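Ops channel
N.P.: pipeline sanity check, posting one input/output pair.
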C-alpha cells in the first residue's frame, strides 16, 4: 500500500497536473505543438542525457551486462510486436505508432525516481537505470524516427539527414568521452546545462497536454488498452524471463525487471507529433499507461521479492 501511495503522489499526480496545465494552455492560447516538440528533441532531451551520463558512475562490467539485457529485451519485444501487428492487421502509420508505444518506455523521469524509491538510493541500481535511459534516449531518435518515415514512404536520404541532425546521437559519446578523460566543464557552461536539463520533464509533459488538448477525443479503446497491456504487463514478464535466461540474480535482476515495468515513453508522443503519425493514439497510450501503472508497477514491486 505504501508503494501504491508513493507512486500515486510522487509520479502519477504530478505528471497529471502538468498534462492538465498543457491542456489548459492550449485551450487558452492555441500553443504551437511543433515548436514544443522541436525544443524537446533539439534542446531539453540532449541536455538531460548529457548531464545524467556525465554525472553517473558506470563500471564496464555493469555496462556490458545491462546492454546485453537491453538488446535481448528489445529484440524480444520487437518480435512480439511484429506478431501483434500482423494479427491485428495494422496499416500505414499505425504500425510504428503501436510498436513505439510498447518498445519505448519512460526510463527517465518515471523510472529513475521509482528506482531510487524501491532501492533506497542505491548507486548500483541507479547506474543500471541510467544505462537503460541512455538506450531509451538513443533509439527513439534513430530507429523510432526512421520507422515512422519509412511507413509514410518518405525519402530515406532525407530521413537519415534528419536523424543525423539530432543532438542526442552525438551527446552520448561526447558525455562518455568527457567523463572517461575527466574533462571538467566550466561553471558558466554547466549552469545552463543544468537549467535546460531540469526543463525537460516540464516541457515534455506540457507537450503531451497540448496534444491532448487539441484532440477530438475519439478513443481507440481496443488499441490503446492492447498497448497498455503489452507495455505494463507483458513487458516486465519478458524482462523476468530474460533475467532467468541470462542467469542474473539479486538486486541487479530486480533492477532490470523493474526497468521494464514503467509506462509508455513521452518520446512516442513527441515523434508522433513531430512527424504527424497517429498523435491521438500515441497521446492516449502515454496518458492511460501512466495512470494504469499505479497498479501494475505496484504489483511488479511486490513480485520482485521472489526474483533471485
Amino acid at each position: 500500500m505504501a508503494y501504491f501511495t508513493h507512486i500515486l503522489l510522487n509520479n502519477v499526480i504530478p505528471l497529471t497536473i502538468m498534462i492538465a496545465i498543457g491542456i489548459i494552455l492550449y485551450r487558452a492560447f492555441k500553443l504551437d505543438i511543433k515548436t514544443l516538440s522541436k525544443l524537446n528533441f533539439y534542446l531539453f532531451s540532449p541536455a538531460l542525457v548529457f548531464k545524467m551520463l556525465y554525472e553517473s558512475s558506470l563500471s564496464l562490467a555493469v555496462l556490458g551486462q545491462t546492454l546485453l539485457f537491453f538488446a535481448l529485451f528489445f529484440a524480444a519485444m520487437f518480435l512480439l510486436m511484429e506478431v501483434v501487428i500482423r494479427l491485428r492487421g495494422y496499416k500505414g502509420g499505425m504500425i510504428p505508432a503501436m510498436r513505439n508505444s510498447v518498445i519505448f518506455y519512460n526510463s527517465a523521469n518515471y523510472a529513475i525516481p521509482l528506482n531510487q524509491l524501491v532501492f533506497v538510493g542505491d548507486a548500483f541500481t541507479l547506474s543500471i537505470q541510467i544505462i537503460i535511459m541512455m538506450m531509451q534516449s538513443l533509439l527513439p531518435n534513430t530507429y523510432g524516427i526512421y520507422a515512422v518515415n519509412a511507413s509514410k514512404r518518405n525519402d530515406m536520404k532525407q530521413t537519415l539527414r534528419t536523424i543525423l541532425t539530432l543532438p542526442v546521437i552525438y551527446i552520448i559519446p561526447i558525455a562518455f568521452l568527457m567523463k572517461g578523460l575527466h574533462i571538467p566543464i566550466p561553471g558558466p557552461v554547466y549552469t545552463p546545462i543544468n537549467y535546460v536539463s531540469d526543463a525537460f520533464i516540464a516541457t515534455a509533459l506540457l507537450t503531451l497536454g497540448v496534444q491532448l488538448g487539441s484532440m477530438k477525443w475519439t478513443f481507440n479503446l481496443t488499441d490503446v488498452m492492447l498497448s497498455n497491456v503489452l507495455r505494463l504487463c507483458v513487458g516486465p514478464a519478458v524482462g523476468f524471463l530474460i533475467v532467468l535466461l541470462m542467469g542474473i540474480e539479486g538486486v541487479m535482476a530486480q533492477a532490470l525487471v523493474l526497468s521494464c515495468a514503467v509506462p509508455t515513453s513521452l518520446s512516442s508522443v513527441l515523434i508522433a507529433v513531430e512527424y504527424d503519425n497517429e498523435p491521438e493514439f500515441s497521446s492516449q497510450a502515454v496518458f492511460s499507461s501512466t495512470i494504469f501503472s499505479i497498479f501494475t508497477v505496484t504489483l511488479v514491486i511486490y513480485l520482485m521479492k521472489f526474483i533471485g
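N.P.: looks fine end to end. Residues 60-88 form the longest helix (29 residues).
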